[in-house]
Amino acid sequence: MSKIAKYLNGHILGEVSARESRLKQFSTDRSILQIQPNLVMYPRITDDIRKIMRFSWQLAEKGHIFGVTARGFGGSTDGSALSEGIIVDVSRHMDNIKELDLRAKTVRVQSGANFSKLNLAIGAHSMSIFQAPAGEMLTVGGAIAQNLPAEKFNYGELVDATRELKVVLSSGDEIETRRLSRRELSEKLALQNFEGEIYRGIDTLIEENYDLIEKLEDDSSYGYSGITRVKKSDGSFDLTPLFFGSLGTLGVITEATFSTEFIVNETEFMVVSFENRDDARDFIDEIRQFNPDIIDVFDGKSFELAVASGKKYQFYIDRVAENLQTKLVLAVGISDRNQRKIHTKMRRIEKISKKFTGATTWMSDGSVEQNAELEAIRDVREALRSRSGVIREEIFPIQGVYIPLERFEQFYLGLQKLAKKFNIPAPVQGSALTSIFEILAEFDFSKVSDRRKSLDFLIELNSLLATVDGALGYGAGEGRIYGAFVAKNIGDDAVNLYREIRKIFDPMSILNPNSKKETDFKELAKNIRNGK
After folding, report:
1. What is the pLDDT of residues 437-454, one digit of tens each?
2. CATH entry, 97-262, from 3.30.465.10, 3.90.550.10, 3.10.20.880, 3.40.50.1000
3. 23: exposed, middle or buried (C-beta count within 10 Å: 0-12, 13-18, 19+)?
């Protein structure tokens, strides 16, 4: 591979590395898998990505598949940021804010920029992307690739705020996607190049599968469910939604243009703890009248484990001192442009909480210390993942678990039985507004037996979810891990449709070739990282 690295380095402005230390660095993400790539590329300009794609395309024409996988922060928990081929790290150099247009209220940004940098840049002009997902280190490309849900519920999703994308296709051609009129679509359909082939292929696919597409869920990360948003009744056409949840399998996103809005809302939080999970659900039903933007959900086990490992959560410590059990904790966020209205809503929510025996509330007084405490409460997930100051390799983060809120208690009791069977802690966290949760199952991956057990646990978890009309991979996509479960959930017709979409964009199977496919559990087991 060093010869290929040397060849590519002679043709790009960026860097291609075959050094063992670099390869090892990119062999893991936040999933349980470890897969070492052959090469790592740090592109400086879009043309670097175009050249690597042309190189891989030419190899594929000769029968040699050299997979290309785009990567940002590497925060995926589904293994989608891993590849045996070449990893293209866009976060090192391609992380610039290209243009902020205050008049048009748009921002154009490279895909490797993280939201911390983006928010800082536009926040200086009192602007915000209301539909942005949570995660300061999360890159723009990663958020799109995984179709991550917005942090605030009431403003829609990131796809709703996306005006345009720039994408390098598997052929090495670069395209821009945006909403096209009928006339503009006709011009694209007439193109005698790969871009034209894509437009003709997707347009035909939509016409031939109209009834099936009408039945698909447009808010899922399964397959390429963005197909539901591509063609509107007025004939307008936009490929952009297809890239949301695509995990880099349709092209490498290089730039995105988002709508921005002037910051008009303040957000304040209240933490409410319950002795009874059914009480928490009833409480959630009652406070929906106030249109909360955020209702984070944490089970008591999350805080029990975090406190036992040395973390300090005063609200939890206070409840223990009062002999109150903590079954469920809610972090409720209320936004409004009027501070007085926020306070009024908070007081009414607090009043509602007092109806429930054993419920307690905690609100920040605005001090630095209490604001830090609040952030720590909402970030207990990271506290569990880094109890000893480093990322714990024992955690199996199972994201994108859809659980209907009305069936949550049934699911939770089943999960506790499952956790007891496998003799593991399995705390649960998520959002009551989206019904998408995460389970942080803990195994000893230094043991072969536990590596096998983790997949058995996943299989049984999927069976449990079926009993409550839940599903795996709902808000995270298939990646490498959830393919088998997703295929079963969506049915053969949808699987075949998505397979055709992928084939249109990537006929050579170059782009992230092992993601969003049927899971091979034997192969997956071989790639579970050793926790030593």
Report:
1. 999 998 888 888 888 899
2. 3.30.465.10
3. middle
